[in-house]
UniProtKB/TrEMBL annotation, chains A, B:
Lineage of producing organism: Archaea, Methanobacteriati, Methanobacteriota, Stenosarchaea group, Halobacteria
Coiled-coil positions: none
Domain HTH tetR-type: 3-63
GO MF, one annotated term: DNA-binding transcription factor activity
Start-end of DNA-binding region: 26-45
Protein name: TetR/AcrR family transcriptional regulator
Cross-referenced InterPro entries: BetI_C, Homeodomain-like_sf, HTH-type_TetR-like_transc_reg, HTH_TetR, Tet_transcr_reg_TetR-rel_C_sf
Short name of any one Pfam family annotated for the protein: TetR_N
PROSITE patterns found in the cross-reference section: HTH_TETR_2
Keywords: DNA-binding, Repressor, Transcription, Transcription regulation
Amino acid sequence: MSEDTTEELMGATYRALCKHGYASLRMQDIADESTKSKAALHYHYESKHDLLVAFLEHLYEQFEADIGADCGDDPATQLVTFVEDRLTPRGDGQKEFQTALLEIKAQAPYDEAYRERLTEFDQLIFDRLRSILQRGIDHGVVDDEIEPEDTAAFLVEHINGAQLRNVTVGASLETARHRLRTYLTEQVLVASEMEHSDE
Amino acid sequence: MSEDTTEELMGATYRALCKHGYASLRMQDIADESTKSKAALHYHYESKHDLLVAFLEHLYEQFEADIGADCGDDPATQLVTFVEDRLTPRGDGQKEFQTALLEIKAQAPYDEAYRERLTEFDQLIFDRLRSILQRGIDHGVVDDEIEPEDTAAFLVEHINGAQLRNVTVGASLETARHRLRTYLTEQVLVASEMEHSDE
């Protein structure tokens, strides 16, 4: 399959998930969002499940490219930006997409292929946070009494919970973002770089 | 419907959800877990959806009774116990049940009746935490610089995230509980009651 076709089908899958959710999604709904026929889709992907596994892989690659390398910026800024980005809706249909993604997450316990892909996402976010926190400690901008591993896991849990609560009971993502920023400022980052400039 | 019949059907629904999950659950599966026929179930509940809404209401009442009144115990102990209880598997099939409950949560954005019931749960946990935190401040065992409302919401988010991560990627609930306890001890509770016994 050409790269253009892959891109097109992944875009169509995204739009179809936003429109129909996961549970009632049919291959025809995805075909309707693309220039391809349902038969053409089935030529590339045996089932809706196969296509969605490929879609999760595609999302992962995009996400990995998006977050770029862990270097450059000041680790304090990088930490706040990375965490806030996870709780900031981007583009059209982000709420609908998060909703469909939650349906896929809810299938993960029954579905090894989904679970593996979601575990990769979880691990990538965890690794990135741990690495930023470690650099933050090395640069004296993150409290050196925290354990990067524990705090990274705590943040991953928290991001998951804020997203879940937003989707299921409509809790504000903005307020959640604000609370998490307060946590970072008061509990993770050192009060001010000036105080620790000699570290 | 007699109270005994309600109890029986709610128990049957719990067991059927643990066995089959939510998506593929049929009224027959619930009947199979009870002494009633599928026709008898349909006499009381028009659809699987109606039965599950009643089930969520039943869970809520049970939960409300379980957590009892907010009084008596030392607020510091009460806070830690309440939070840890949310992340402690209880009884058989708890993991399976959490999995089915996540499927229902994932349907909440599409389903007002589910969303209303889940919002009640969320609100109950939030209210209880806020009230414990306020009593903790009044008793000098909770840091009086925290905002009970913000910290309660932060804890609700965190509990949601730890449960979600446990179900979807199999992250350890025990480790999550330990991390959250550390957060409570280091950031929410005052270092020791002795230091603040004059408050």
